[in-house]
From TrEMBL:
Keywords, ordered alphabetically: Hydrolase
Pfam families assigned to the protein according to its UniProt record, in alphabetical order: Hydrolase_3
This protein's name: HAD-IIB family hydrolase
SUPFAM superfamilies: HAD-like
Provenance organism: Ornithinibacillus hominis
Superkingdom per UniProt: Bacteria
Entry's Gene Ontology cellular component terms: cytosol
The keyword Hydrolase belongs to this UniProt entry's keyword annotation: yes
């Protein structure tokens, strides 16, 4: 959480703390100190919850429980999980943007490396998994590019979009 204080902090790491504190307010986001404040405020609309745990068994228990709930979508990696409305996915976002910009879905390319990219892979005309993606993600892709450390996104864009 960000402090409600407007005092400049003694930090010289390149971050503009005042900008960081005011940015969410410009876009309708609210600061809160206690989760109860967020829950009790009926004007809030929650788009996504993000959870992180280092306990693999606890994460599995949470995901098992969440998968039983209607109207939510869960995407996770080994450390974190996202909980969203069932229609909030990268696949739906890609479909919306393609429609908005009048681009046929078969002419779209999706590049990803995590499980939350799978819905986007299922929507895109070409699904490109990063070389460092899990086997589960790779099996949903059309092709596999280099890893993040090997500039896989640039390689895929050059090869599959620009045709170089």
């Amino acid at each position: 959480m960000f402090s409600s204080s407007t005092r400049k902090h003694d930090v010289d790491d390149g971050f503009d703390l005042e900008l960081i504190k005011t940015f969410p307010l410009e876009y309708g986001h609210k600061h809160f100190k206690q989760i109860e404040d967020l829950i009790k405020d009926e004007t809030n609309t929650i788009q996504k919850f993000f959870g992180i745990t280092l306990d693999v068994h606890q994460k599995e228990r949470i995901e098992t429980f969440l998968h039983k709930l209607d109207d939510i979508s869960i995407a996770s990696t080994s450390l974190y999980f996202d909980i969203m409305h069932r229609h909030a996915s990268k696949g739906n976002a890609l479909s919306y943007m393609a429609t908005y910009f009048e681009i046929p879905l078969e002419d779209t390319v999706a590049i990803g490396d995590e499980s939350n990219d799978i819905s986007m892979f299922q929507t895109a005309g070409l699904a490109v998994a990063m070389g460092n993606a899990s086997d589960e993600v790779k099996k949903h892709s059309d092709v596999i590019t280099l890893t993040n450390d090997e500039n896989g996104v640039a390689f895929a864009l050059n090869k599959y979009v620009l045709g170089n």
